[in-house]
# Entry
Amino acid sequence: MSWLKILGAVIVGALLLTVGILLGHFAIPKGGNGSGAPSWVQTVGRDLNESLLQSFMDQVESEKIRENLKALASQPHMATTKGDEELVKLLLRRWQDPQIGLDSTSEDVYGAFLSFPDPQRPNSVAVGVPGGGIKIFTTRRSEKNVTADQAHADVVQPYAAYAPPGNPRGRLIYANQGKRSDYQELFNMGINLNGTIAITRYGGTGRADKAVNGAEFGVAGVVVYTDPADINDRRASEEETYPNSWYMPPSGVERGSYNGYFGDLLTPYYPAKEFTYRIKESEIQGIPPIPTQPIGFEDAQTLICDVQVNVHNQRVIKNSSNVMGFIRGSEEPDRYVLYGNHRDSWVHGAIDPSSGTAVMLEITRVLGKMLKEGKWRPRRSIIFGSWGAEEFGLIGSTEYTEEFYSKLRERSVAYINVDISVFGERPFVLPALLRSCCTIPISAFTAGDGKLCSPPRDVSHSRPSPLPGPESLTPLHPPYSLGSLGAGSDYASFIHYLGITSMDIAYTYDRNKTSARIYPAYHTAFDTFDYADRFIDPGFTSHQAVARTAGNVLLRLADSLVLPLNVSDYGEKLDELYSAAAQGDFLDKLNANNLSLGTDPLKAAIDRFKSVAADFNQRITKLKKEESPSPLQIRMVNDQIMLLERAFLNPQAFPNKYYYSHVIWASKSSDQATFPGLADAYTNALETGDWDQVRKHLTIVVQAVESAASTLEAVA
# Structure
């Protein structure tokens, strides 16, 4: 009977299995979109909601931005001062608001190495009698008050941050812009520069370089002034300047950080925390080795003969904060779109940087409201950063990239920077001109053939243009360029150190209609709300246009199923950089030094990159046409786009330049329009005969381009 029991058990088991299969077949809904499927199945393939994007732009208010700026610029807020600390609290309140706030916030503190003037012993430049101690003239301690909102007890006296203390005295010599070539020319003329005081004008080279170069030729001290020809279209009288126009008054003095590098100077490559190893102050490079002081052009024209520079700056470590705001992504929370601007200023800082912070606060207000109302959550996480101590050398943003180096490199899609959001007053602004550099341009802003062009109407503005135009409904058409951002704002460590695709957005003036190298009140005590409200953007419609455009880019990066970054334009840029080295004197010199073969592998690498990029774009096009594209395939191509910028990094390429590792976008001192390392090596070889470095940098470029091409290839 035992075999009957076994047979019965087998039959019962078979029946139960059959019933289970039938129940599974008929009772469970079929297809990934059934009501019984996990919720992520229904949302993982969602794309950008254009109507939601339009709703965002409709809600951006110029008056709100104006109110933000008035609050932000109500008092001076130099890094680590009381005014700066109050803005930290303001940002935290806004981003923690239950109706319009973000998901979460944090305050990240770093011990930054900073430089301040001694409030008890003001810096000055004095004219004395040769050989005697009698002073017949001393420069102003601060600018002349011309408006009520300019006056404040916390206005810092003009000074050159990081310049060492000292009281050198000597014969005054004019050294143009303080470039090395300027001092060399004086030396070649037979002028003895030892022990002299050099007066230089802003521009031409970095602030610190004016002193570093002078010290090399024996100069004892440096005075820097702003020339009316460089900033004011030669307007120099009080009647022609602020408050009667946007031009800088005669007493205006441009403050600034005299620092050739970025990040905390004592902790390169490490976040400036209490536990961090700090180098000796004597080991710092790129700061003035001799006393240096900025003055106004009113005082500059008075300086004659024997001059004494009196500098009493103090270098200290003080706590500086980054304020961070977070919106968690729904489908890809481990992919970050970053948006930032610095918070600190030299004085009131209405334009630099508060115009950018005012825009950021309006963007976060609208997005926060949509978030709290349950109308929207981004596909990818969004991180907002209000960076501290930028004016001293991009310290807050650089320390952030150092502290979160690995996470940011692995997960960051792009960084959007909006610092000075509006540079110029309307009469000088081309209708709807936008200044923006993007290391990989948003494909929504490119034509079908991949060439850079104006964005379509719905990208930047859906309303009538705020500026005069040929038509009442002229849309904004900002030109975008694929090019080097340099290191002038907080994008520097993101692109040069981490290789994160970066963009800088601003409304600027037509440089064909003014010779001003920047807006005239830059870094002076005249950069106030009144100045911005009357002369930079009355009505704040240009600020509104920047907020709409920057928010538009942010939402496209955060919500698009496939990242809207166009890789093909890199091929055109590579061609451009190659062409500069493959013709004329440059090519002749390569041939003369047996380096002609070096350009052939480079051309082959660029051609391969362009071919691979074209194939990659075809794969994306095919993927977008699929009714239900594979989430894994979408993730794969997005990672390839995200990592393309990283492929151009080579930490060994520029050993003498902190943080610079991007082979395409690194800084260069040469005027050759080719790859930066190759350009500098070539210019140096002309002087020294060392062509091995040229050969080395040809190798570096070829390897980087080949690496980038491999990044875009289809995964085997």
